[in-house]
Model the fold of this input.
Amino acid sequence: MPNTRILTENTLNQYSEIRKPKRGYFPIKIRKISFSNELLLIGVILDKEPEEMVYIKVTASELLISCSVDTHENYLSRYAYFSLTQLMYYHTEYDFEEYYWPDFFDQETGESKYLMIHKSKDNLKVSLKVSYKGFYKTGKQLPVISQNRVPLRKALPYTQEQPPKETHVILGFCLADSNNEWYRTNHYPFLVPYTGILNKAKTEVRSFTTYVLNEMQLSEIDLSDEQQNLVEICFDMKKIALVANPEYKEDAHKLSEKRKQNQNNFNQLFELWQKALPLLSERLYTHYIYTYGMRNVKGKPRRSYMTPCAFNNETPEICFLWKDKGDYYKLELRLMLQGRIHSLQYYFNTAFFAMLSYSPRNYVLLNSVDDSQLVSYFQQSQFKLLVLKKHYEGDFKNFVDQLRMVYRFINK
Done:
């Protein structure tokens, strides 16, 4: 498939007239023997025949196949064909990305200081060593960096909330989060009000009563102007937070429309979060919950799922650390707050927010949608990208040059 290392059954069949027998059982056994100098060695046994070797090299645009018997540039042997179909197993495709490591091996020794190769009986797994996580491979898609720099958000004044004097019933606000790639009712992060009861000392929420999803649920609570404004923002958020998922065999036009609508909702939600921030900062009763889908945002919040959190009113500025590591460069994303550089927590991606590594429940609202998308990209590789110097020219250099025009770089 274009721009991937995926071989489909349809593509494979275009290069061979061999097919599995339609009737009867035809046993195929393969074992991944070794991976050295970018070459994957597979042993294949067809029925009761002797084992033969198949050699596979994955490049940016081609899958190179050889065999210990009769494969050549114009002919794919039975052993090569059936080893590839067996890799696909019950699927109609196989992704060779795991074996695409251009220039990561020492040509003399055939080994790689960057990779871990785990060998089992008939299989092997290839992955980057922990200290080299985030290595760029040629052909990988890099984000497009907008040159329209968004001015840093100005910090607005906020009011420090005080515990209620004559009641233990409170109105709190919860960051409802989910993974928008998992469930049918997935959603972008939005803010949802809840009611709860404080402990005797009024220092924390003892129990949670209900999510507030309409004005009727607030009839017995005397709201301040700030709370009323925040509740209205919450209701506006929930209306557009749900992610539209693709349906089975949906046509390209409808998919495009859904992606466009999702992006529009994402942008509008970000604007609402910016509007909510000064009303939300320094509130006493704020929590985080991972919802596992919008369908669960109803009724009584589960206490064990509700985690106290805070919302930082400061405006973060993305910056990058640039390091020359000898045979490769290292690019690390950091946040600058009030002149200090902070590393980020990378276990969770909460779209509009960044979480500082030393204080992961202190949510920092990013400055722009572009910043949010950049942080999400870097979060996948623990906020660092590494590139071999021989791969630097071209796409990666263009990417770094674009970053340098918009963000601060600090050479280390």
Notes: The two ends are 39 Å apart (CA to CA). The longest strand covers residues 328-337. Helices lie at 9-14, 78-88, 225-241, 252-280, 369-379, 395-406. The CA atoms of residues 5 and 97 lie 5 Å apart.
